[in-house]
Design brief:
There is one protein chain. Helix content is 46%, strand content 20%. The chain is α+β, with helices and mostly antiparallel strands and 189 residues long. A six-stranded mixed beta sheet has the order 2-3-1-4-6-5, with helices on one face.
């Protein structure tokens, strides 16, 4: 299973200029051919993988949502505890599981704090890529899509939802809170 990030541009955009902007911000623009995705794009739009290494595992996009994950989802934790009790776990064993779950969450938070500088620079790179693509790249918009898939993206059956974002209201936190299978379309408006 891997994360993939794709960028979407209208075919009328200056691909060479956008590729140059991408290189400056460590974003590759490799044509992506997925007929399932292409059917959901507007006519005259193309989609590009943003990594030459094929996947974007370890990306900062959506990382805050992933960090919150299971340990901070009280409903999921309560459901898990209920299942453990129903399967015959003793209260001592359930409590041990809860303590271990809390320790894992604490360890994740510590590691994330240690890597905060790296995350900030990657968020800044994505924000600069999006902003410069629209303001300097001859493209009226740029779309970014985060998808989790267990194979090559070209074969993925992805159902996307569009979410427009005006550059004037763009906040760095948006990149950390990216949702999977949402095509964030950044426009100058």
């Amino acid at each position: 299973m891997c994360y993939y990030i794709t960028a979407t541009f209208p075919n009328s955009a200056d691909a060479a200029l956008l590729s140059d902007i991408g290189r400056r911000h460590s974003v590759a623009l490799v044509p992506c051919h997925n007929s399932f995705l292409q059917e959901q794009l507007y006519p005259g739009e193309s989609q590009y993988l943003t990594s030459r290494g094929r996947c974007n595992c370890g990306t900062v996009l959506g990382s805050r949502r992933k960090e919150r994950g299971f340990a901070h989802d009280t409903n999921a934790v309560e459901q898990k505890i209920s299942r453990l009790r129903k399967s015959g776990w003793s209260e001592t064993k359930v409590q041990r599981w809860c303590d271990q779950n809390a320790n894992v969450a604490t360890r994740k938070e510590r590691v994330l704090a240690e890597h905060a500088g790296t995350r900030t620079s990657e968020v800044n790179a994505w924000q600069q890529f999006v902003t410069q693509s629209v303001l300097e790249g001859g493209s009226p918009y740029v779309g970014l899509l985060l998808h989790w898939h267990g194979g090559m993206l070209e074969g993925a059956e992805v159902r996307i939802v569009r979410s427009p974002v005006e550059l004037s209201s763009l906040q760095p936190g948006l990149f950390l809170d990216f949702k999977e299978d949402v095509l964030y379309t950044f426009v100058n408006g």
